[in-house]
Amino acid sequence: MTRTIAISGASGKTGYRIAEEVLAAGDRPRLLLRPNSVVPASLAGCEQHRLDLADAAALDAALQGADALVIATGARPSVDLTGPMRVDAWGVQRQVASCQRLGLRRVLLVSSLCAGRWQHPLNLFGLILVWKRIGERALETSGLDWTVIRPGGLSEREQGLEQEGIRWSGPDSQESDSIPRRLVARCCLEALNTPAAIGRILEITSAPKLPLVRLEAVLAG
Question: What count of Cα atoms within 13 Å lies in the side-chain half-sphere of residue 32?
């Protein structure tokens, strides 16, 4: 059965890759975008909703009838240090509230390794890891069927990924290492398709030396 998977932040470097992976899997990506966002040609034919996440009515309309939501919004580096608060905390809270109003149960949030840690260099940019953890908590306490994905440092690399294994772990288990955005997108889709991932925070990094292991097998072990 073909699903409609809404993706917020779908024009971002990770978001558009998530949408491409959803499309490649045979499902329908529904792109939630800021009014002036540009999407790649590969997604030009996808359903698009351009809105401000603070507009509750527009957000509800964009999510109506979706089977799942992937929250891939994230504050961009800026001189405006309130961005992480507005995007990574308030923005997530608004999306969670919309899902609750609509009865949209399945929600996956793309967060970050080290979310919630105070003593981290990234917090120099508007306490970004602190606000990400507040966004996570909004989802965790929502009563929805949630999963949080915490990737490590993100790279744009697209080559050699088929032989690159994922290091899956629980919360606060990894502190460094990186992962290509394309693999983050694939991990998101894999988690959406794995019932045992519901109610879990999953940290992910990758390396060519790691074995190729499915998430289902990791969680079963």
Answer: 27
Side-chain half-sphere exposure of 10, counting CA atoms within 13 A: 30
* Triad 177, 180, 181: Cα angle to 5°: 125
Contacting residues for 75 by C-beta, under 8 A, at least 6 apart: 83, 84, 86, 87, 88, 126, 128, 131
Domain ranges of the chain: 4-220
Tell me what percent of the chain is helix, strand and coil, each rounded to the nearest 5: 35, 25, 40
Q: Which CATH superfamily is 4-220 part of?
A: NAD(P)-binding Rossmann-like Domain (3.40.50.720)
Cα within 13 Å of Cα(169), Cβ side = 16
3-state secondary structure of 139: helix
State the distance between the two ends of the chain, measured CA to CA, in whole angstroms: 29
Q: What is the pLDDT of residues 121-177, one digit of tens each?
A: 665 676 889 999 999 999 999 999 999 999 999 999 999 999 999 999 999 999 889
